[in-house]
Amino acid sequence: MVGLNITHIYLTKECSEDEIVEEVLKLNEDPGVHGVCLQLPSSVLTSRVANALKPEKDVDGITDLNMGRLVRGDFSKGFVPPVASAVANSARSGLSLHRFKNKKKKKKDLCVFYVSDIEISRAQTPKPVTQLAEEIGLLPGELEAYGRNKAKVRLSLLDRLHTQPDGNYVLVAGITPTPLGEGKSTVTIGLVQAFSAHLKLNSFACLRQPSQGPTFGVKGGAAGGGYAQVIPMEEFNLHLTGDIHAITAANNLVAAAVDARMLHEATQSDKALFNRLVPSVNGVRKFSPIQISRLQRLGINKTEPTSLSPQEVSRFVRLDLDPSKITWQRVVDTNDRFLRKITVGQASTEKGQIRETGFDIAVASEIMAILALADSLEDMKNRLARMVVGTSRRGQPVTAEDLGVSGALAVLMKDAIKPTLMQTLEGTPVFVHAGPFANIAHGNSSVLADKLALKLVGRDGFVVTEAGFGADIGMEKFFNIKCRASGLRPNVVVLVATVRALKMHGGGPNVSAGAPLPKEYIEENLSLVADGCRSNLRKQIQIAQLFGVPVVVALNVFKTDTLAEIDLVCQIAKECGASDAVPCHHWSQGGRGSVELAKAVKEAVSRPNNFQFLYNIEMPIVEKIRTIAQKVYGADDIELSPEAKAKVDYYNQQGFGSLPICMAKTHLSLSHMPDKKGAPTGFILPIRDVRASIGAGFIYPLVGTMSTMPGLPTRPCFYDIDLDPVTEEITGLF
Amino acid sequence: MVGLNITHIYLTKECSEDEIVEEVLKLNEDPGVHGVCLQLPSSVLTSRVANALKPEKDVDGITDLNMGRLVRGDFSKGFVPPVASAVANSARSGLSLHRFKNKKKKKKDLCVFYVSDIEISRAQTPKPVTQLAEEIGLLPGELEAYGRNKAKVRLSLLDRLHTQPDGNYVLVAGITPTPLGEGKSTVTIGLVQAFSAHLKLNSFACLRQPSQGPTFGVKGGAAGGGYAQVIPMEEFNLHLTGDIHAITAANNLVAAAVDARMLHEATQSDKALFNRLVPSVNGVRKFSPIQISRLQRLGINKTEPTSLSPQEVSRFVRLDLDPSKITWQRVVDTNDRFLRKITVGQASTEKGQIRETGFDIAVASEIMAILALADSLEDMKNRLARMVVGTSRRGQPVTAEDLGVSGALAVLMKDAIKPTLMQTLEGTPVFVHAGPFANIAHGNSSVLADKLALKLVGRDGFVVTEAGFGADIGMEKFFNIKCRASGLRPNVVVLVATVRALKMHGGGPNVSAGAPLPKEYIEENLSLVADGCRSNLRKQIQIAQLFGVPVVVALNVFKTDTLAEIDLVCQIAKECGASDAVPCHHWSQGGRGSVELAKAVKEAVSRPNNFQFLYNIEMPIVEKIRTIAQKVYGADDIELSPEAKAKVDYYNQQGFGSLPICMAKTHLSLSHMPDKKGAPTGFILPIRDVRASIGAGFIYPLVGTMSTMPGLPTRPCFYDIDLDPVTEEITGLF
């Protein structure tokens, strides 16, 4: 995310039209300058200025525009015009606005300026979310604004639009990525910008909310990038509307309840526990509804506290959790590696009940996966109640409802279940909702956001939703887990590829974050590209076809890609079965750079679609795992550790055998070996352990070790993040 | 908070006027019924119904009302009329609305129904916060709505109203409370309801945001109670606008930075650290602004990374934190006792860098105290940067800015600094902002909320703000810490007392939560009352007078208080120097029950006010502590432990000697001994340890052990908290 490697001209108050034209003419003649982007308020972006620019250097196509159509903003301050509300949903990407920050123009090398994502984001004033809501057909009562730029949308909308036909459902997945990522989020945003702002078709992007951990750690934000962003990016990347904080609060209430309950059971008699759990209030004792549910699960069909036998009292009051079999972890939304493994309960007040446990990053909480899969408030509440926190000494699963905490969890999560409405740089609507891990969970945005969006766009509209990691992981889980939960059926898969990743799969040298890219990735190399296409790209296309869904390959173009490389990718992709394959320039051009992709997607939805799940849900757990390993990953077979086998037996015995499978596998290879690129074959997939998220509703086999708590590097991103206390502007987010 | 112990009549659709009148007449004659509260929509609250009720049984004074003035609501559903917006700011407390919930009327004992706070809260539909904002003179651009019922207010308002005179500034403090609490919050809310809705004077309540820990633990919510509440109480008690979550995120980012930095320093050479901390980007190395601040603090006046000597590099890169002297704790907003003392860093990835530490409840974070004391974004940012997280092996304090994290903290807190606007049951405005601990911090709501409110109410208006615990703690800190930070001067202190607490101070038996009250507290006992007044009440009045501020005693009346007891309290309070003393009935009557108090406060502000601080800030630390102990607590002297003495020396040496003092003492006695009631004398106050919150800006001596992490009981509040997934109604919050 280093910004655009093209020349920008900034405006200062003092610049006259003559001076700008003179600067443009110089750049025209400079052989080192390959592209010019005029970032000028429309008041000085006159046709004389636009015409001065040579068309072959015109990155944004400003010379093609009818200058009279440009919207004029308020430039009283000489800087950024607040045009978003005026030009939203209209072709606008030719007018790249940029706030001049008293930078000295440094004449270096190619006269290149870098523009950060937050600078681009801030240069565009978003239209009020109330206006956006009106444009997309929401009633005022269906919106809960959170400040000016974002709002929660009430689920009652689903009832109102019950009879409205769904729009087209597009999944954005990717080939196996390099560690740098290949731009699925930017493709998603560019695609809806193309649909809504350029092709005048209703569209919605459904994105995941990012964790704050990486924002302040290594990776930076996740609002897209360049001219394909969700704005304001700082709100997207920070607290948003508080959903992750609500998850943290709910998750940690469960954890506190687990340990406190173990302490109270360890220090009290059955009778004392019963007297406290079912107290006499004004001489009357009664069970709370949550306690009656527990009694029913225990097979005690009584509702009168005094009627329980001493043995029934004991079974009722003692969850009898085995401290060595607590699976519930605490969470924080911070990269705090020192919390990976800790010992709790060391204060004397806890009477020696110490135990080892750990914290995960908040988005790894099962509650996040539940938020993403729930299709109503009631469904979420039921899933929260079913969450298993550990096992009793008798080997029975203990749930959140057993702890008496499930009602409080639903209360804590009652606002989080409403998707958050935001907008792209070009004023098109976006839902941001949920963001479960893509390994120990399913890595997709929420079912509810997709459902609301599909109703809002209407029959001819498009909802573009994104699946984490490569298609072998995110897309497989999207189909087998998310679509099973939602009942929705996708119309087309957009498979994102980059020349860089394809070269890596074709045998190029190692790519790693922080290190300079080897020359193979900077210079043309058709042979590496072709080999990458015929291995990983082909395999990922085939995986989508297993599910019977048409595939459009979106090649996310980088400035170092040559025309020959781009053409080669598109040609081979089509040979491998893609409905179409098109280059995309959304990063530098916004929606205009993705118009061809949008057209290809629109064409693909008219193709035959024979969606099917990969496996029958009633198949034995091991068979479901084997099916994914062989058909999706290309493994010869699977091999379960003794621990994994024992867990499978336990889950079968507990009646969890017919849940879908959520593989926790590296995303850096189709296999379990991160360094095996392309399309590996001839391997046995080892299943180290098998775990379960019963509330979310899936079994997750562990293929290798998954880190659920990132760390901070020596110089975390936060070093550069700052706030101007006068302007309230944030710097350093990217 | 068990609700009103008076009879309520609920309306069902099927009730005719005749049936209601018949029921009223029966209650008139029932000697077991002492009070009747008609909770009926105005459509059926006819004058015939109102006149049927005997005046002596009329709790709400409905028989006094001119029935024609009652506002009629929309009763199409037969239940709750959404009248708030129509009747807000008008006398309305005679119309107690209550939603009928298909409860069977149980004819028990005294025909008493209990109404919970959340039922009262929910029965009143709040007016839209945008309307409230307009009523109090905010411009639309100064408001950031968070849903329909709450909004953040921008600090730019202070600039706009710069020339506006401040209103009257009223502090609500209390006598030394019983463990049950004596109702400062309800007095605060009742008082503003009286001012605005009954006396037609502009007023604002400034309250603290409660922690979620107690809400789900033992204590329940903190929105007031009965007919003196902030509504919707569930939003007040849950996530509100996310400020506590922001504090949690900021606090824990610092903690993660501390441990990660110690790990990186332990495992890297000076050169490696320097290369990572000041990386070469495109061949250019430069310090970030935050790093230049650190260099300056180190006395290294260089800005060119390559110009540092190896020794300077070493001093720059090594914070050299002493693991045994880290004072920064992590926080969660959950009662999680097992996190009181923990060991972190036990995963192999942390390379054996384990250490003992702990979590506090989020509101105990220094960042919360900073939020409460900051008077601008810039001030908050500077305080965040100054926070000391531990001590280096050379004995130097290490700050958040040294860690490079202070800019990111300001970013995380940029919205939290804006106070949240809500409303009382009677539609009058409330700011909810900050909620620091009242022992290790100063226990007052925010400086900024008070400042904004004082401008908004104007010269003749009233801002009522609340200080935690008894006046010896909360009020003393309000004057010496908060007023010093804000520059504001209070006009009057309202000192809340209850007959219950006065009897305890007069020698009554022990009062404890959960246990039934001894008969002394239920039956008239004038001697205990008198003794309590002449000890604790007198002393607390004298403390306020030390600061030169007039005192009005507010007696929060309970149903068991007799007229003779009430009269006696008021009489003795005035003898002891109170400007006035009045009984208050806000719990059962709302603002109407506090009109006399409001009149007394209005009268008191016209009295002479000679505000002065208790001590000169430049006095030595020990002298400041001694002054508070002797003059406020009544101690003979203080005695510092060797550890405390050493800390005082250290703080003096570091230049922290001229900070104000924030005593961490029990609130259950004027002394350090919780069981010494009344006004103890002849004791030496032991100072166990002395700590410092340098960012917040105070030194806090520890008088005894302070718990900064509550625990969960066997049956926490959460057992009864539930959400109806269809109506989205919350039950069980109180």
Q: Briefly, what is this?
A:
The structure is a homodimer of 734-residue chains. With 734 residues, the first copy, chain A, is α/β, with parallel strands linked by helices.
Q: Quickly count the helices of chain A.
A: 25
* Quaternary organization: homodimer
The CATH superfamily of the largest domain in chain A is P-loop containing nucleotide triphosphate hydrolases
CATH class placement of the largest domain in chain A: Alpha Beta
EC number (chains A, B): 6.3.4.3
Enzyme class (chains A, B): ligase
GO molecular function (chains A, B): ATP binding; formate-tetrahydrofolate ligase activity; methenyltetrahydrofolate cyclohydrolase activity; methylenetetrahydrofolate dehydrogenase (NADP+) activity
Pfam families (chains A, B): FTHFS, THF_DHG_CYH
Protein architecture, described:
The structure is a homodimer of 734-residue chains. By secondary structure, chain A is an alpha/beta fold. Chain A folds into 4 domains: 5-114, no CATH class; 122-241 and 419-606, 3-Layer(aba) Sandwich (Rossmann fold), CATH 3.40.50.300; 244-413, Domain 2, N(10)-formyltetrahydrofolate synthetase (2-Layer Sandwich); 621-702, Formyltetrahydrofolate synthetase, domain 3. Helices cover 34% and strands 16% of the residues of chain A. Chain A has 25 helices and 29 strands. In chain A, the strands form 9 sheets. In chain A, strands 3, 4, 5, 6, 7, 8, 18, 19, 20, 21, 22 and 23 form a 12-stranded mixed sheet that branches. A 3-stranded antiparallel sheet of chain A has the order 11-16-17, covered by helices on one side. Residues 1-6 and 64-114 of chain A have low confidence and may be disordered. The interface between A and B is large, with 89 and 87 residues.
